[in-house]
Each structure stands twice: as structure tokens, then as C-alpha cells.
Protein 1
Amino acid sequence: MPPALNRNLVGTWHYKATSGLIDGAPTTGSLRFKPDGTVDDPDQVLGSNQQQSSGSIIAKLYTVSNESVAIRLATKDQIVAIIFLNVDANTCDKITLRPAYDQSGNYIELTDKAN
């Protein structure tokens, strides 16, 4: 039996999506979910850190509640985007997520976890 989602998500995962989560974002890469609620996104699969109208993205944060994950993209002064993901599957070596707003069947797979 896999750990609860909030514990299982912590670590470095290979990321693969059927489409870019944010327009123009890559569909493959890696993400590291840290115990402090921050996300390292070296491949910018959650969107680039480029200048937004309200400043550059300086933090990517996540929270887990029940069977969903919320990812917040923040500038120095405010949250500029929130991505809501529903959990379809949570196993020891794979987590499958679906964007809550997407009815077209897109999904994200997190696989090959390294701690």
C-alpha cells in the first residue's frame, strides 16, 4: 500500500503530460516536491519563471488536500496562478493527476521517483 499522498508526493519525479499544463510549457521533465511545500521545477513544466505583469515567478508552492493537489505560482507580491489537480492514482512508483478544469482527458504522470 502506498503512503498517503502528502507523504508520497515528496521527492523528485519524472514528469510527463499529454499537453503543456500552462500554455507553452514542456510536456516532459522533472519536478521535486519538497517537504516544506515548495516545488523545484528545473525544466519549467509548471511554466517559466519569466516576467509576468506583476513580476517574475519566484516561488512554486504546493498543498495537498484529500485527493487533490494545488500548485501556486507566486511573484514577490502575489499569487499569479493556481493549478488544481485531481489525483486519479497514487501508487508507490506512480502518481496520475488530471487538471481539475480540463474535460478533454489530459493527464499528468509522475513516475520514477527518486528521494
Note: The helical segments are 5-8.
Protein 2
Amino acid sequence: MLIAIGALALFIAILILLLPREDTETTPDGERKAEAAGDGVVAPTTLEGALVAQLVHGEITRTQYHAALAGLAARDDERNPLSAPGNDRPDACA
């Protein structure tokens, strides 16, 4: 009888460890879930994410999305120009 109780306790402990818990407060990344949506959708945290959400919901067209991303890329290039290693040498392109 004692073995049966021990086996049952072990089985319950394994079930508790293996079954996923539903955390309604935060996502695994620690971001708050969107309360307004009510369906567990995480609000976008970047401008690119907001644009994708607008595209998926049909608020903007593909052309508008591409134009907005091109503008973001141009702005990013102005703010943070990318330089490849070796471009500072005169003989790098020769």
C-alpha cells in the first residue's frame, strides 16, 4: 500500500513538472501582453513590428509597407552608416 501511495505521489509530481503553466502576466521575454486585444497578442515593440501588424490587419497596403521600410532603411543608413572592414585602405578595391 505504501508503495502505491509513493508511486502515485511520484506520478503527480512528474505531471506537475511536465504540464505547462499558463502565465497571464508576462510573456517569456518579460513583455506585457496587450490587454486591449484580450486574445493573448503581444503588442509590437518596434516600428518594423508595428508596420507588420498594420499590414497583417489590412490597415496599409503592400506598397505602403515597402515604402515605409525603404524610408526606415534610408534613415538608418544616415544615422548609422555601415562600413565594411578594409574600406579605409586605398588598395582595398584594386
Note: Confidence is low (pLDDT under 50) at residues 33-37.
Protein 3
Amino acid sequence: MKKIVLSLAVIGGLVFTSCKKDAAQENLDNKLDSITEQAKDTLNEIKEEVAETVESLESKIKEAEEELKKAVTVEEKQAATKKLNDAKAALATLKGEAISTAEEVKQEATAAANKAGAAAKNTVKNAEKKVEKAKEEIKTKTITVKDGAIKKAENKAVLTSDDLKTR
């Protein structure tokens, strides 16, 4: 009876370990979803900022081009050209920064996802090892129980045959 209870406890442990394996996969999925959402949110914020700033700079460029067309004196032309060049430089810088920031966000998200994946793999491997160990323990306990039952039956059979001989 004790052996049966012990075997049931080990089986319960196996089921629990199996559930932990499922939970690890679910945790990984949740972490990856969270990382993806954070990256998307950050990129959307950057996109909005860049869009607003790009529109502003493009309007400054158009304004400077109009001023350059209307300029009559050399000083007016130089001022309009400077304003136009500054706006164009700012636009180029902004685009470069936006690309750089997007790449950084992508790299951070990829690194975080890889880290979460590695952690989940380790958890799953550890759970699998525990399951295998528990299986071996059950096998050993089962063999021990069988051997004990066989020995008892043999002993009983020997005792019964001895009793029959003495009668």
C-alpha cells in the first residue's frame, strides 16, 4: 500500500513538472509579446515625432525657396540660401537620427527576445531532466515493488508447500 501511494506521489510530481514546462512556454510567449509591443510602441512614437518635424522642416524649406525666388539683393539671396541650407541639413539630420533610433530599438528588442528565449529553453531543459529523473525513480520503485511482491508470493508458496508436506 505504501508503495502504491509513493508511486502515485511520484506520478503527481511528473504531472506537476509537466505543467511547469507548459507554464515556462507560456511565460516565454508573454515576454516575447510584451517585448514586441514595447518595440512597436516606441517605433510608432518615433514615427509620429519624425512626421511632425519633417512636415515642419519641409514647410521651412518651401518658405526659404519662396524667399530665395523673391530675393532681389545679394544679402537677401544669401539669407534665403542660408535658411534653405539650414532647413535641408536639419531634415537630413532628422532622417538619419530616426533611422539610427529605429535600429537601436530593433537591436534592443532582438536582444531581449533572445534572452527570454534562452531562459525559456533552459527552463524547459531543466523540466525535461526532472521528468526523466522522476520516470526513472518510478521505474525503480515499480521494479522494487514487483520484486517484493514476487518474493512474498514465493515465500508464501514455499510456506504453503511446507505446510502441505507436514500435514
Note: The two ends are 33 Å apart (CA to CA).
Protein 4
Amino acid sequence: MIARMVSIAALVALAGPAFSEDLSPAAQATKAQLAQHLGVDAGDHTLAELSDLNCRIEATDSETEKARLLADFQQASAPRAPAPMSSREQLARSLGVDPAEYTTGQLTLLKALVESEECYVPNPAQFASPGERLTPVSAGAKAQLAGTLGLDPNEFTLVELVKMHFESEQDEN
């Protein structure tokens, strides 16, 4: 029975990756049986992966080697935790801005603005430029920066104002 399942699985695997998970009812049944036989969850693996593992396990006589192959397979396919965000990314997210648009120094400036008590705008849309998404806090930072620079906050994006602020500080130094 297992040899027949492996034969079907091999045919499906040969069909290529584009077809490997677009399975017919018979192939889905084979995948479920292989997964059950191997003691793994069918939804976590492709039919080709299950077939390959089964072939390797059936090819060995040692129970220890079979157990090692299965353990290695399960460990390799275990879900990985997402990579932790850098502190810069965390800071940007907490400010409601895209980390790719700001340097660490610019994010620090925004954080300082946000922590001031004047930095909350109940209607952020009043300061948003076309296509710009602002939170009540980032809108307040935008209004403060524009005021510091003597500019109308509606004429510039928050990113532009932050960059202008940094350029004006560099010109002063």
C-alpha cells in the first residue's frame, strides 16, 4: 500500500512545483495517508516532501536512523518565529510612520515632538498632504515642525518637513 502511495506521490512530484499542491482528490488522499503514516500534519508539508521523506525512511533498516530522519524533517519544517524588529523599526511603528522614510536621528526628533504635550491633533486629516496617512500624534508633530520652520503644514509631507528641519540644523552648524 505504501509503495503504491509513493508511486502516486512520485508522479505528482514529477509534475513540477506548479502542480504539486493543486492536488486531485486521489492525490490529496495519498498525501493524507502518507502524513498519517509518518506521524506529521499533512497541511504543513507538500506531497513531494512527504514522499521524499517516506522514501528515505523506507530505504533504511535502522530504527534509530528512521527516527533521526523523521526528527530532522520535523525540526527543519517547524515554523520559525518572525525576525525581531530593530529598535529603529519599533520606534517608527510606535510613531505611526514608515521606517524606510526616516533615519534614526529623524525618528528621534519625531519621538521628542510626540512626547511634548502639544503634539496631539484630533483631526489628522487637516494636516495630511494628498496620499499622506497621519495619526493624531504624527499630525501634531507635523504641525510643530511646520511652525518651527515657518511653513504651512498642508504644503509639505511630514517626511519633507523632517528633512527640511535637519537641513536647517546642518546649515546653522
Note: Residues 2-76 form one domain.
